[in-house]
């Protein structure tokens, strides 16, 4: 065994989402269409279910697996929702949001300029996962951020 093996593989970050989907292979194909993801590989079990899949969006990986109730692995549709939002920074939030909606995501929060300095919107994909999409448009000083929060968390007037 080589002693030169990196403890965190090249191209991976310290934390990588690993999501469960009903129809994970179909979800991978959807994310390629909706978010421009790159297919990082698929490994099926003997039952034909996806045991491990990986996509890359920008510089980040997301791992996927098919639902398997026997292993207590259920996706958001089986659970009636999810408390998790996958956040994605992109160069052009408006174009990315429209691409996701055109591919089949449901818009859940329209794109708007937000008080914390991002242009930001949210969608839910057909597999029940929530995504926030943002482009950072300005840096906000801590005192300005605190004042804006005291006025209410919402889109800033432009």
From TrEMBL:
Q: Show the PROSITE patterns listed in the entry.
A: VOC (PS51819)
One Pfam family this chain carries? Answer: Glyoxalase
Name the InterPro entries for this protein: Glyas_Bleomycin-R_OHBP_Dase, Glyas_Fos-R_dOase_dom, VOC_core
VOC domain residues: 11-136
| Protein's recorded name | VOC family protein
Q: Which organism is it from?
A: Massilia glaciei
